[in-house]
Every structure is written in structure tokens, then in C-alpha cells.
Specification:
This protein is of the alpha/beta class and about 170 residues long. It is about 40% helix and about 30% strand. It has a domain of about 90 residues: 3-Layer(aba) Sandwich (Rossmann fold). The protein is globular and about 55 Å long. The protein starts with a strand and ends in a 5-residue tail after the last strand. This is Methyltransferase type 11 domain-containing protein. It comes from Rouxiella silvae.
Length: about 170
């Protein structure tokens, strides 16, 4: 098992705080993953894909590293639509489909980001402790993220979804 993050600080914290010696840690950008083609069976991305600057590039890279039949699960902030429409209009869903993935299903676990905004409130209220433990740059990044998301308040939800790579491309 390998855990990745773009932040060397996050990777160092994970290395120093994990208990399972079977986990490897890599600093990696998910647009340029340091893994061989068709090498991953399973990939899980929690609150990371929404930071991709280009969903088409991300989807092509994920398609490159995933084995045919490989499965991925993500969480992502997406416009609130019925699932049948989401697959057709969401930019990440469209990019994944065009890169050879099938969307298996969605679960909207934070309607209109109500929990997410409570999370930002807690970080802000405990900012001194958060800055001391996690650092100023992570605190600033999360507050910038909160300001960016606020403009979508009421129109975006937090979804979990799963996809799999087509075994035989059409």
C-alpha cells in the first residue's frame, strides 16, 4: 500500500504518525504519478481531485496507471444535480468517461457543503492551535479554499463516487 500527497509536510507527518510498517509514502502530483502504466488495482482519493487544474489531464493519468478493471473511489465537490444528469454534465465525470472509466455510483454525503463549512468554522475558531500544529501555509490554504467555495454555497455538494476502468476499450 502506498499513500501519496503533493505536500512533503503532510507526507512527513504521516510517516511519523502511522503504525503500519507496510505503508509506503510518496510525495506525488496526481497529474504526474510516479507509477508504471497499468500498475494499480485500487486507488482512493479523498478531498484531492477537486484541486486538479485540468480534469482531462488528471483522468488520462489515472487511466494510464490503473489496470484494466481497476477500481477507484473519490470524494469531490460537484454541482448538485440528480445522479443521471451529474454523469453527463460534471466536468470530472465527463473526463473520466472519455478516458475509459465507467462511473459506478454516487453518494451525496454533504448536501450543499453544510458540513464542510462547519469544518472551516472550527478551523477558524481554533486557528492558533491549528497554525501551531499544521503550519501557517496549510491554514492559509484551507481558508482560501473556504473563501473560494463560499461563492458556490447552496449549489455544490460533497459526493463520494466509485469508478472502474473498462477492461476492453470500446
Amino acid at each position: 500500500m502506498t499513500a501519496t500527497d503533493i505536500s512533503p509536510v503532510a507526507i512527513n507527518m504521516a510517516k511519523n504518525n502511522h503504525f503500519d510498517k507496510k505503508i509506503n509514502f510518496d510525495v506525488a502530483d496526481f497529474n504526474h504519478l510516479p507509477y508504471n502504466s497499468n500498475s494499480l488495482d485500487i486507488l482512493v482519493g479523498l478531498d484531492c481531485v477537486q484541486h486538479a487544474s485540468n480534469y482531462n489531464q488528471l483522468s488520462k493519468e489515472l487511466s494510464r496507471v490503473m489496470k484494466p478493471g481497476g477500481r477507484m473511489a473519490f470524494t469531490n465537490w460537484m454541482k448538485t444535480y440528480p445522479d443521471s444528469k451529474l454523469v453527463k454534465v460534471d466536468p470530472l465525470c465527463v473526463a473520466l468517461t472519455e478516458s475509459g472509466f465507467v462511473i459506478d455510483g454516487f453518494y451525496n454525503f454533504d448536501e450543499e457543503l453544510k458540513r464542510q463549512f462547519k469544518f472551516y468554522d472550527l478551523i477558524y475558531l481554533n486557528r492558533a492551535l491549528f497554525q501551531k500544529v499544521m503550519g501557517e501555509s496549510l491554514y492559509t490554504s484551507l481558508m482560501n479554499e473556504a473563501c473560494h467555495l463560499y461563492q458556490f454555497n447552496g449549489t455544490v455538494s460533497h459526493y463520494a463516487f466509485s469508478v472502474h476502468k473498462i477492461i476492453y476499450p470500446v
